[in-house]
Amino acid sequence: MSPISSSSDAAAFGKVGVLFGGRSAEREVSIMSGTGVLAALSSRGIDAHAFDPALRSLAELADEGFDRVFIALHGRFGEDGSLQGALEQLGIPYTGSGVMTSAVGMDKIATKMIWIVRGLPTPKYAILDDDTDLARVALDLGLPLIVKPPLEGSTIGITKVGAASQMQAAYRLAATFDEVVLAEEFVSGREFTVAVLGRGKTARALPIVEIVAPQGNYDYQNKYFTDDTKYFCPADLDPATAGEMERIAVEAYRALGCEGWGRVDVLLRAADNAPFLLEVNTSPGMTSHSLVPMAARAVGIGYEALCVEILASARLKMAKGQG
C-alpha cells in the first residue's frame, strides 16, 4: 500500500477503533501494542479511537458508528476467534485472520495437526491430561522436552523439563491455564521468527529475525521488559537456508488461512540446520520490542506505514455467505 498522501486518504478509513487491553493473560502487552498502533494511526490523520473490550461492550462499536477496527489484542478473547465472530455479527471489518483461522492458530495442537497433514516440519508432540503416563511421554519424546498450555502465548505457563521427575509439576503448571496440555520435543538450535504480510497467493515473508536471548531463555520478561535479548535482522543465514525458512513459514501461514499479518516462529536444529515450525501468531505484538515492526523496518516500511497497511487490509471474512 502506498503511504497516505492527503487528509482525504485518511478519511477513507472512517472511524477506526483500536482494540487493545482485553481480559487475557497478555493484557499488559496488548496495552503496549495498542497504544503504539493508536499513536501511529492518529499521526497519519486517521480518526482512531482506543477501545478496551474488558471495559466496554462490543455492542458500543456498532452503536458509536465505528467503520473498521484494528485488533491489537493478544491471547484469549482477542486472538482466538471469539472476537472475530462478534465483529462478523456486527458487520464491522477487522484486521487479521478470520474466525476459524484465529481459533485454530490460537491452538498449538490443532495448528501442528494441520501442518503435519500438509507435510510441514514441526517438533514431535504429545497431548497430556490427568490420565497420561507422563514418564512414558518423557521416554517417547526424549529429554529435555517442553511442556506448555496450548492456548496461551508469550511463553506463559511453559516449562523446559530436564528430568522425568519434573513432568508432574510442569504439567500442573500448564494445566492451570488449559484443560489439555502440550508436550513437545525440544529442538536444540537457533531461534527465528518470520513475519508474513498479505493473504493467499499474495502473502509474502519479511526479512527473518534471529532471537538470541540470555541463556537461551526467551521468556515473558526477556520478550517485553528487558534489553538483554538480542535481535538480528536480516538474520545471518546462507541464502538456501533463509529461502527454505521463508518458504515453510509462508506455507504454514497459508495452510491455516492467515491474512493481514502474522508471525511464524521457527527453530533451526543445530545438528543439521533443519527448520522446525513452532507456532503462528495471528495477532502479533506491535510494541517497541516487537518483531514484525523490526522485520518491516529492514525493508524500509516504518512503524506508522506498517500500521496503515494492516488497517487497509481490514475486511469481513464471511461476507460471501450472507443472505
From TrEMBL:
Q: Which residues bind Mg(2+) 1?
A: 265, 279
A GO BP term, please?
regulation of cell shape
Q: What does this protein do?
A: Cell wall formation.
Q: Which InterPro entries match?
A: ATP-grasp, ATP_grasp_subdomain_1, D-Ala_lig_Van_CS, D_ala_D_ala, Dala_Dala_lig_C, Dala_Dala_lig_N, PreATP-grasp_dom_sf
Q: Where in the cell is it found?
A: Cytoplasm
Q: In which pathway does it act?
A: Cell wall biogenesis; peptidoglycan biosynthesis
Record's superkingdom? Bacteria
Q: What keywords tag this UniProt record?
A: ATP-binding, Cell shape, Cell wall biogenesis/degradation, Cytoplasm, Ligase, Magnesium, Manganese, Metal-binding, Nucleotide-binding, Peptidoglycan synthesis
Q: Which reactions appear under catalytic activity for this entry?
A: 2 D-alanine + ATP = D-alanyl-D-alanine + ADP + phosphate + H(+)
| Similarity comment | Belongs to the D-alanine--D-alanine ligase family.
The family database entries (PROSITE patterns) matched by this protein are listed as:
ATP_GRASP (PS50975), DALA_DALA_LIGASE_1 (PS00843), DALA_DALA_LIGASE_2 (PS00844)
| Residues annotated as catalytic | 26, 154, 290
State the EC number(s): 6.3.2.4
Q: Which cofactor does it need?
A: Mn(2+); Mg(2+)
Predominant location category:
cytoplasm
Tell me the ranges covered by the ATP-grasp domain, including all copies: 112-312
Q: Name one GO molecular function term.
A: D-alanine-D-alanine ligase activity
Residues reported in the UniProt entry to bind Mg(2+) 2:
279, 281
Relay the cofactor remark from the entry. Answer: Binds 2 magnesium or manganese ions per subunit.
Descriptive protein name: D-alanine--D-alanine ligase
Specify whether Cell wall biogenesis/degradation is a keyword of the entry: yes
The record's HAMAP family line, in alphabetical order, gives: Dala_Dala_lig
Organism listed in the record: Massilia psychrophila
GO cellular component assignments: cytosol
